[in-house]
Amino acid sequence: ENLGVILYANADHIEYRHAFMYDVFDRYLGIRDKDWSADLHKGHMALLEQRKASLEAFLLSKTEGTKPSLSLESYVGIYIHDMMGDVNIEFNDGKLMAYLPPRMETPLEHHHFDTFMTISQVTKAPFAPITFSFDVMGKPKSLNFLGFEFKK
To answer: Of 114, 95, 115, 113, whose CA–CA distance to 105 is shortest?
Structure first.
């Protein structure tokens, strides 16, 4: 049909790009009966509420009195995921820092066992857990972040 849509947005996970694209397609087809922005906003807000409830439940499930299996320095390294990119874990000033794709930099606060919380750069509140897994020698072999496994 010789129709293409390109939208550049200076933000991550901004759903406006989808609403704009669908609206352009509808206009091209002569259809103007759907408010894509409102529909996608409603769905996006429902997902945010679900994520918030899940995070709150996780935070409440904390097992008190635990500590990491290893010294914090032992978790340092580059953890790789072929699609998501690399997570770089560093030890600075007595704390673990995580550098996550695409541009997230966060201290890691111990939650329980070998799970640490990332901290939102915007709200300064807990964002999502990072959980480390170990090889048979007891050394970190991977971490899980947002359901993705990054291997060392």
So the answer is: 95
3-state class (DSSP) for residue 9:
coil
Dihedral of CA 42/122/90/132: which sign? negative
Residue pointed to by tokens 């635990």? 66
Whole-model pTM: value is: 0.75
pLDDT digits (tens, 9 = 90+) for 103-114: 889 999 999 999
**Cβ(142)–Cβ(133) below 8 Å:** yes
pLDDT per residue as tens digits for the range 6-27: 877 766 566 678 888 888 889 9
How many helices, marked H, and strands, marked E, lie in the chain? Answer: 2, 8
